[in-house]
Amino acid sequence: MNIQTVGVIGAGVMGIGVAQNLAQTDHQVILIDISEDILDKAKYEIRNNIRLQSFFQKSDNRKTPDSILEKIDFSTSYKLLENADFVVENVTEKWDIKKGIYPQLDAICPQHCVFAANTSAIPITRLASLTKRPDQVLGIHFMNPVPMKPMVEMIRGYHTSETTIEIAKQMLSQMGKECVIVNDSPGFVSNRVLMLTINEAVFLLQDQVATAEDVDKIFKGCFGHKMGPLETADLIGLDTILFSIEVLYENFNDSKYRPCPLLKKMVDAGLYGRKNGQGFFVYQ
Length: 284
What we know:
Blueprint (H helix, E strand, L loop, with lengths): L4 E5 L3 H12 L3 E5 L3 H21 L8 H5 L2 E4 L10 E4 L5 H4 L2 H8 L5 E4 L6 H5 L8 E5 L9 E6 L5 H13 L3 E6 L6 H17 L5 H12 L5 H8 L1 H15 L8 H8 L16
Parallel strand pairs: 1-2, 1-4, 2-3, 4-5, 5-6, 7-8
Antiparallel strand pairs: 6-7
């Protein structure tokens, strides 16, 4: 299938990254969110991200921020998706929010359109059940920052067809990415392991076993990780981390996924990490 127009639902950190990556690889993008203020902020963030990225990726063929932004339509209307070939959904990790989106997509998007949930933990089969095309729904778990991460986790739902998998692989290849295909299970592979690691690191901080700096220093110095678990949590967003762990706890009903009280307190206090300047560390 010739994938030309891609809808991106949600203009948060992940949606911004997906939209930017798609536009930089010559896709026409429709970025949708609930308000013009959010979309204006997304446009500002994409412009800044492109400028920052240019410092790390030198190229004679580098595109200007304006030429990339010209490929993105910023809108609050799902109506623009009536010609979309592919849609990537990136909204908040809450079932009550996500469940209202897929019936709208199903009603507006053309029959050939594939839906990909960029979710950290919510089961793909459950999301697919909200549509009349469950064989055309799969998960694509992009990593942050999206334009700079070459690998994604692709999740096959119960009904996902081989044709859908191949279409998604084609689009990812166009974006310059490889994928590892896994089966549907809450948290999949990456977050089923990562969220436990982050949650336990927060318990270490709560129990005063070590400072945030020292927890991360051990992971970077002893294991060669580029970022420690608490820096990683700040990058993802502590609110997203908490939502993901709560989804794992709800789905597995296993106490090992019990969210650390300190994590819940920090989210209640509005300390989300890099996205608003303070989490386990302070950002300017």
